């Protein structure tokens, strides 16, 4: 069994959870925050048998889209002046950042 951990943009989270439910996959959604943009995101935990991993990856790929996002300049006040960027910077936020982990044991009580 594998645990798929997928960080997706909030805009895609309803679409993705509907698609997973439709295909009969169980998932847990966690509210999360990106360390760089500090924008809200949704982290999905999906536990599946090994042979279903690719189907879940396909669903994630088909329901999450990459977007360009502007990072507004942040005042150095109270922060680190070394990292201050005085102009907006555009970064591409991925459709989904996905980690796949081996599950040692799975119990439901
Ligand atoms: P954030 O950390 O808020 O990053 C948002 C986007 O900003 C990233 O998109 C990337 O394009 C850019 N970015 C991040 N760190 C950067 C840096 N040090 N310098 C320049 N640009 C930077 P994605 O790579 O698609 O990542 C989207 C979100 O997925 C991330 O949000 C983070 O929450 C998660 N993520 C990405 N890689 C991860 C990793 N190795 N471990 C844990 N979470 C990760």
Describe the structure.
The protein is 22% helix and 37% strand. Strands 2-3-1-6 form a four-stranded antiparallel beta sheet. It has a single domain, classed as Alpha-Beta Plaits (2-Layer Sandwich), CATH 3.30.70.120. It is elongated, with a radius of gyration of 17 Å. With 109 residues, the chain is an alpha+beta fold. The mean pLDDT is 91. Strand 2 and strand 3 (40-48) form a beta hairpin. Ligand 2BA binds at residues 7, 34-37, 39, 41, 91-94, 97. InterPro entries: CdAMP_rec, N-reg_PII-like_a/b, N-reg_PII/ATP_PRibTrfase_C. Pfam families: CdAMP_rec.
Please state roughly what percent of the residues sit in beta strands, choosing from under 5%, 5-15%, 15-25%, 25-35%, 35-45% or over 45%.
Answer: 35-45%
Structural class: alpha+beta
By CATH, the topology is Alpha-Beta Plaits
**What number of structural domains do the residues give?**
1
In sequence order, what are the helices and strands, one letter per element? Answer: EHEEHEEE
Low-pLDDT parts are none
Shape: elongated
Major beta sheet, strand line-up: 2-3-1-6
| Tally of helical runs | 2
Keywords:
single chain; 109 residues; alpha+beta; Alpha-Beta Plaits; 2 helices; 6 strands; 22% helix; elongated; binds ligand 2BA; CdAMP_rec; N-reg_PII-like_a/b
